[in-house]
Amino acid sequence: MTNHYVATVPVKFTDSEGEVRTRFQRVGAMFRNTRNGDGSEFFSLKLDFPVAVQELVMFPPSSKEPQE
User: Fold this and answer.
1) Is-contact 43 33, C-beta < 8 A?
2) Reported pTM
3) What is the DSSP letter of 64?
4) Which residues pair with 26 in a beta bridge?
5) Is the Cα dihedral 67, 27, 21, 2 positive or negative?
6) What is the 3-state secondary structure (H, E, C) of 15-26?
7) Which of 4, 39, 51, 61 has a CB 3.0–4.6 Å from the CB of 65, allowing a cystine?
8) CA distances to 21, 30, 36 from 50, in Å
9) How does pLDDT run across 53-62, given as a tens digit for each residue?
10) Which domain of life is it from (predicted)?
11) What's the pLDDT tens digit per position in 38-48?
12) d(Cα 8, Cα 16) in Å, to the nearest integer?
């Protein structure tokens, strides 16, 4: 299981056939962490740049994503 997810924002656009579609623009990564004391999990979100959005969508990294 991966220890991080790709953080994205959904961006709606109209394709060449006039259909409204959604693409996902990468804005950072979310990392799964484990506390040393009790072993509980938590996540940390690291943004590539400051963003002012209402929604972030996380995906597991694809095979073409560089490993950090």
Assistant:
1) yes
2) 0.62
3) T
4) 8
5) positive
6) CCCCCEEEEEEE
7) 61
8) 25, 15, 30
9) 766 666 677 7
10) Bacteria
11) 887 788 888 88
12) 23
**Residue 66 to residues 6, 12, 18, 61, Cα–Cα distance (Å):** 11, 25, 33, 9
Question: In 3-state terms, what secondary structure has residue 61?
Answer: coil
Cα 33 to chain center, whole Å? 16
The two structure tokens encoding residue 5: 């997810």
Question: CA angle 13-29-38, nearest 5°?
Answer: 140
